[in-house]
Amino acid sequence: MILPITAYGDPVLRKRSIDIDAQYPNLAEIISNMWDTMYNASGIGLAAPQINLPIRLFLVDSDFILKKLEEEEDQSENDFAGEKGVTQVFINAKIHSRVGEEWYYTEGCLSIPNIREDVLRPDEIDIEYMDVNFIKHREKFSGLTGRVIQHEYDHIEGILFTDLLKPLKKRLLKNKLERISKGDVKVDYKMRFPARK
Predict the structure, then answer these.
(1) Does some domain include residue 197?
(2) Which residues span the domain enclosing 27?
(3) 152 is annotated as an active-site residue
(4) How far apart are CA 74 and CA 40, in angstroms?
(5) What is the pLDDT of residue 128?
(6) Active site residue: 29, 152, 157, 178, which one?
(7) Please, which residues have CB within 8 angstroms of residue 25's CB and are 6 or more apart in sequence?
(8) I need a surface site. Which of 22, 125, 159, 181 has the fewest CB within 10 A?
(9) What is the CATH number of the domain that holds 98?
């Protein structure tokens, strides 16, 4: 089932999410709905706060975008040529370290539609998480996959990619962000906007 994506300005996007266990109500259905919602909105990642649930759960499909880049681009210009993507659920994730050279890449967010900006992030992360069967993993990710995971991980920490921009860029985006929070935005997927006071 496709769910509405929570828009910028909703308090749930600013909460630090809580850990869950295998008995969390309707977890399999929630995960299935998140995949449906993400793909319907042409996303490559989605975190539970974006469907109004402040729990430590997110999904990533970097395999999809890497294959698309491989098909579309001249491989001499594809910075991610040869990178292996993942299609993975991350539960109760904890980043142990972020290392390597920092680099800019243009990011967007389904909760902040029609805004894309260059964000500086380190190249590699060391992350511990549980999969859908609550089996614990600890892995390192880098490249585009590492970046997508960092973006989604930030969501469960209450951080948005716009928080990582320089002060001048934040000020320039202020009006656009306010319009999104008021529902004054055109998108081709369902959204849930903050209640008006």
Answers:
(1) no
(2) 5-192
(3) yes
(4) 27
(5) 98
(6) 152
(7) none
(8) 22
(9) 3.90.45.10
141 is a domain residue: yes
What pLDDT digit, counting tens, does each position of 8-30 carry?
999 999 999 999 999 999 999 99
Overall domain count for the chain = 1
For 44-88, write each residue's pLDDT tens digit. Answer: 999 999 999 999 999 999 987 788 777 776 555 567 777 889 999
Decide if 87 is inside a domain.
yes
Q: Is pLDDT above 60 for 197? A: no
The answer for residues whose C-beta is within 8 angstroms of residue 11's C-beta and 6 or more apart is 194
Query: Each residue of 131-173: pLDDT tens digit?
Result: 999 999 999 999 999 999 999 999 999 999 999 999 999 999 9
Q: Are 121 and 102 in contact (CB under 8 A)?
A: yes
